[in-house]
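Hi P.,

Sorry for the delay on this. The queue was packed all week, but I finally got your sequence through. Input first:
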Amino acid sequence: MITAMAETITTTIIIAKSIAITIITTATPMLMTANNPKPQRHAAPGTIGSGDDVPAVGSNPISNSEAATLYRLMTWLSPSFPVGAFSYSGGIEWAVEAGDIRDGASLRDWLGSMLTMGSGFCDSVFLAHAHRAASSGAENELAEITELAASFASSRERRLETLTQGKAFIEIAHAAWNCGTLDRLIAACGDSIVYPIAVGVVGAAHEIVLEPIAHAFLHAVVSNWISAAARLVPLGQTDSQRVLAALEPAVAETATRALKASLDDLGGATFRVDLAGMRHETQYTRLFRS
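Then the structure:
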């Protein structure tokens, strides 16, 4: 009986070893396949799903200079960059009190006008021309553009807003990211450097391409407007992001239009926005400086 039991145990061990060897033999190729996937099949080039619009991982790494450009733009035009933008509403505070802005939909309409027909477009034009003049070394032209941009402020508070942010932007960029030509360009501009001129000049001094600067600048401006409105209406975080998302096409279109515009194309038709900026000066209760 003992001999029979021993034979049974031995047979069981042999079967178990056989199963283990089979599992290992089968699993090993599966693991190798998972770690080394076969190339995916793609549709014909240029067709939907072909993957032509999605670069392969690591196929087009950005250069060090491109990484530095992206880093600086993200920093300079971030809400955390200390130019004091959070202190200004661009007249939105009065518009909320007057009932012009009541919710996300009315805010979107108001900001759409500011963006496409008001200070958003005009500031982008000034930024573009200042960048080009600074890049080409046309210091006399840069001085004229700077003077014209400062004169475009429609109210005392609007002038305070853009001059204060311009000065802060220049001072901080000069202290942290100074470069050889920046001092000369700042001297050419004089004392009245408004915010868009400051961004254009600093971008040119660092030889950053104009197009991404214009788009990033408008995104920063619109984001600050929405941030102010979120505290005034008030709006929740989700509704604020819905407004920002809805204005995405207008931001892109305005930046593109401004890059093609001449100084003769400057002008606006946002009379209610201008009145809001003027009436905010005598508003009884205020959270913002404009």
